[in-house]
Amino acid sequence: MAESPYYKDKKFVNGVYSIDDPYLYKHFAPNAGKKSNIALMTRKLKPKSVAIYGNTLHTISFISGLMTRGVNASLIHLVMPPKTFKK
After folding, report:
1. Which of 31, 44, 69, 84 is the most buried (most CB within 10 A)?
2. Cα–Cα distances in Å, from 80 out to 14, 25, 40, 77?
3. Are 63 and 41 in contact (CB under 8 A)?
4. Quick one: how far is CA 53 from the chain centroid?
């Protein structure tokens, strides 16, 4: 766990992002440098994969954005939540 750079009263886990985070685009910007998330997923040798959990339009839009930025579709794993859940 670490301090959140955007929300001072929240904690976050490195590598886990919320689809509703208003700063998500900064983490996946195409020109963010060699160690950015997009650079890790689009490199030639040993590209990293990404798991996306959700079933909303935001989720589909995010996947589309990753593919537009050059991420191979086989590296994107969509995890759909159950249709019903218990509180």
Report:
1. 69
2. 22, 22, 24, 10
3. no
4. 9
Question: How many domains, the chain?
Answer: 1
pTM value is 0.72
Give Cβ neighbours of residue 56 (< 8 Å, ≥ 6 apart): 19
The distance from CA 23 to its chain's CA centroid, rounded to whole angstroms, is 11
Please check whether residue 85 lies inside any domain of the structure. Answer: no
Decide: 65 and 73 in contact? Cβ < 8 Å. no
Residue 29 lies in domain: 15-79
The owner of tokens 């589309």 is 64
**Mean pLDDT value across the chain:** 81
pLDDT at 64 over 90: yes
Note the pLDDT of residue 30.
78
DSSP state of 40: H
Token pair 């689009």 is found at 42
Beta-carbon count within 10 A of 81 CB: 10
